[in-house]
C-alpha cells in the first residue's frame, strides 16, 4: 500500500510562503507548542482532500489565505499539495489552489474537475465524504457517543450504500404510488359494479313512484277545494257579523263621550277642593311647628315653678323644725337658770348656817401654857412610840387621798362626759332630721330626673337611630344612584313594556297562586359573563310567563284576547315535556351545563329551566363550543359566551347587536329593582327627617335634666358629707364618749373599792395609834375633861376642813352650770340666725314663684291659643276633606258608569278586532290555499281569475295588512272556483266540528300518502340511461385495474433490486466492522476479557434505523457508553475507527491529539497498537503533545513560529529514525527542540 510522502503548503492559514512538511514515515508524530499551528496541518490535509469550507473553521474560502483573518492577506492565492507514493514507487500529486474566491483542483499538476479529483482520491482509498483517514481534534470521544441514527449514517458513508439513498427513496415512492393506484382502481371497479346493480333497482322503483304521485295529486285537489269552499262560507258570515258590531259600537261611543265630559267636570271641582285642603294642611303644618316650639317653653316654665315651690316647701319645713329645736333649747336654758338660782340659795343657806353654828357653840376649849407643854411632851412620846405605825398610816392616807382626788376627778369627768354625750345626741338627732329632709328632696329629684332621663334616652335613642339610619339611607341612596348612573343605558320604559307589565300584574291578581311571573324575572345567570349565552339559549322563552297548569294558561290566553293585549307565551308546569338530564355532560372539560349557570329561588322553576335549556352546554370560546358540538362521536347543542349557538342539526347562529340588546333585560331587571329601592329610600328619608325635628324637645329636656342633676349633686354631696363625715364623726365621738364613760365608771368603781379597803386598814392602824394615844393621854384627857385627845383635836381642825370642802363643791357646781348655760345660749343664737336667713330665703322665693307663675300662665295662654287655632284648622280640614270625598265619590260613581260604557266599547272593539282578525285570517288562509295551489302546482279550476295573478303577501311588524295586501284580498274575492269536482257530501257539512273532522281525515290521507312517498326514496327517472352509462364505466374500470396491477408489479421488482444492492453494501461493511471491532478493542486494551459489539435496531433493513455500539472494559461489568470514563470512551472510539478503517483502508491515517483524554497506561496501549499496525497495514500521522505517545514514533515533525516575521511557518524535522536512539538521546533531542522553540517564540 502506498504512503503520504510530502505536504507542501503555500500562504495557507498560518503558513507564510512555501513550506515543505515531510517526509512522512510509517508512524510520524507532529509536535510543537500550543498555538504554533499544529492543527493547521490537519486543516491543510482536509483542504487538499476536498473538505468543504465550513469544516475548516472559516466562513469563506478566502479566509484560508495567510493574513486574511486580520484583514491583511499577503496574496490573492494559496495552495496545498500532497505527494503520494504508490507501493510500486510511482508518485501522484494532488493540489488544491484558492484563486479568486474559488478552488482549483489539480491531479499530477493537471487541472481537473472536483468530481474527477474526488474520484482519483477514492482510487487510492480516500473517501472525502466519510473522512475515513482524518480524525479531528476533540472528535474522538464524540464518535463513540454518536446517536444510533448518526452511527448508521456514518456506516452508510463508509460502505457507499448512502449513494443509493436517492434511488432507493425514488423507487419506494413509485412502488407506493403504483400500489395505491392499483388499490384505487380495484375500489373503483367494486363501486361501479354496485352502481350497476343499483341502476337496475332504480328503474323498477321509478315506475312504482309515478303511480303514487298521481294518486296524491288527486287527493290534494280534493283537500284544497274542501278548504276553499268552507273558507268562502266563513268569510261571508264574518262580513255580515262585522257590519252589525260596527253599528252597535258607534252608538256606545256617543254614550261614552257624554260620561267622559261629566267626569272631567267633577275632576276640576275636586282639584279646587284638593288645593284648598292642601293650603289648610300647610297652615296646620306651620302651626304645628310653632306649637312644637312653644309647648317645650311652657313645660320648662312649669318645671321651673315646680322646682322653686318644692324648694320653698323644704325651707318652710326646715323653719318649723328649727322653731321646735329653739323652743326646746329655751326650755333647757330656763331649767339651767333655775338650777343655778337654787344652787345660789343653797350656798347662802350653808354660809348662814355656819355663822349660826359658830355663834351657838361659842368659844373653843383653850389650854393653859403648862397644859400645852405637857400636851406637846405627851404628843412627842406618842410620836416616838407609834413612829413606825404613823409612817405606815401616813403612807396609806397619802395613797387614800390620791385615790380620793382621782375619784373626785373621775366623777367630774363623768359629769362632763355625760354633758358632752347629751350634746352629741342632740346634734345626731339634728343631722338625722337633716338627712331625712335631704333624702326626701333627693328622692323627689331622682324621680323627676329618672322621668326626664327616660324621656331623654328615648329621644336620644330615637334621634341617634334616626341619624344613623339617615346616614345609612343616604349611603345606600348614593350607591343606588351611582349604580343607576354607571348603568349608562336608557332606563325609561316604553308604553308597550308598561302595558305588558300591567297585564302581568293583572294576571297575578286574578291567579295569585298559579301565575308566577316571567321567566326573566324568576331566574338569573350566576355571573354577568353568561348573560349573552343564556339569552341566546332562552330565545323566545325569555319573556314567557310561567304558570302552574295548562288550565290557568288557557284562562290567561282567554283574558288576553278579551283585553286585546299582545300575544304572550305561557309555560305550564304540568304540560311541559321535559327530557332527562344527561349527567355525563357535567364531566366534560372546558364547558358547563347551562342549567348549572342559572340560579333561581323557586324550586318548581327548575323544571321550566330544564325544559328551555335541555342538555345545552356553555363554553368560554367559539372554538371550544364548535369542538364540543361537532368534534365528538355525537353532536351536542352548545353556546359560546359571545352568544354563538351550535345546534345538533349543524345550524350555527352567531351573536349580534340585537342579542346584546336583548341581554340588557338582565340589567334592566336589576335597574327596576334599583329604582324601586330608590323610591323606598327617598320615602324612608322623608319619614326620618320628621323624627329628626324632635331635637328641639331633646335640648329642652337636657337643660332641665342638667339643672336637676346639679341640684341633686349638691344635695347628694351634702347628704354624703353628713352621712359619711359629720354623722360618722358624731357617732364616733359618741362611741368614744360612751367608752370613756364606761371607763370612768369602771375607774370610779375600782377606786371606790380601793378606798374602802384602804379605809379599813387606815382604821385599823388608826385604832392602834389611838389606843397608844389613849394610854398616854388618859390622865391628860381626864384633866381637861374630854373623852380622848382626838375629840380635842377634831373640834379645832376637822370642822374647818368640812366647811372648806363644802364651799369647794358649791363653787364647782356653779361653774359647771354657767358653762352649760353659756353653751345653750350660743346654740340658740345660731339657730335663731339660721331661721332668720331661711325666712329671708322664703320671702325671696315667694316673690320669684309669683314671677314664674306669671311666665307659666303666659306660656300656657299662648299654647292654648295655638291649640285652639289648631283645632279650628282641623275642623276646617275635616269639612274640606268631607267635601273632597263627596266629590271624589261622585267622580267614582261617574267613573264606574264611564268604565261600564268603556268596557262595553272595549268589548265591541274586541269583537270588531276579533271579527276583523278572523276575517283577515280567513282571507289569508284563502290566499295561502290559492298560493299553495300555485306553488305546489295543484290544478284547481277557476271560473273567474287565474292562479298566475296570486302573489305572496308581505306582513308588517304588528301583523297588520298593508294597503297592498288589502288590494290583493279584494282581488282574490272576485276569484270564482269550480267546485263541481268536490264531493256533495263534503259541501253539505255545516258545523265547524264536522268540517274540522273531515279536514283532519283528508289531511291524514294526504299525509299518509306523502309519508309513503317520503319513505319511498325518490326514483331516478333517467334510470335506463344511467344503466347503460354504468355498464360502460364498469368496463373502463376493469381495464384500468389490470394496467395498474401490472405497473405495481414492475415497480416492486425495481425497488427490490435497489434494496438488495443497498442492503448488500451496508451489510458487507457492517458485518466486517462488527467482527473486527472486538478483536481490535481487545488488542487496544491488551486484554482478552474486553468486549466491543455492534447491533442493528432493524436487522431486516439496518440502514433505516440506528446502530447500537457498546463496550465492556476489562475488569468491569457492562454499562452504557455514557457511563464509561473519558479514556475508556476514547479507546472505544479508536477501536471503531480502526475497525472501519480495516474495511475500507486508506493509505494513511491522520489523528489530531487523540491522546488528550488518555492516561499513561492507555497511551502506552494505543501507541503500541499503532506501532504494530504501521509495520505492514497503514501509515499513521499523529499530532500529539504527550511524550509518552510521540516517543514511540518513527519520526517527529516539529512546528514552531518564526521569530522575525512572527508567523507560524517553521518546520523542525528530527532524525528520521529514532529506533537506534536511547532514551537519553531522545530526551536530548526533545530538550534541544524545546529550547530552540522557546528561543524562537516571540509574542
TrEMBL record:
InterPro entries the record matches: P-loop_NTPase, RecF/RecN/SMC_N, SMC, Smc1_ABC, SMC_hinge, SMC_hinge_sf
Annotated SMC hinge domain residues: 513-629
GO CC, any one term: nucleoplasm
Domain of life: Eukaryota
UniProt family annotation: Belongs to the SMC family. SMC1 subfamily.
Gene this chain is encoded by: SMC1B
GO-annotated molecular function: ATP binding; ATP hydrolysis activity; DNA binding
Organism: Macaca mulatta
Classification of source organism: Eukaryota, Metazoa, Chordata, Craniata, Vertebrata
Pfam families found in the cross-reference section: SMC_hinge, SMC_N
Protein name as catalogued: Structural maintenance of chromosomes protein
Protein localization: Chromosome, Centromere; Nucleus
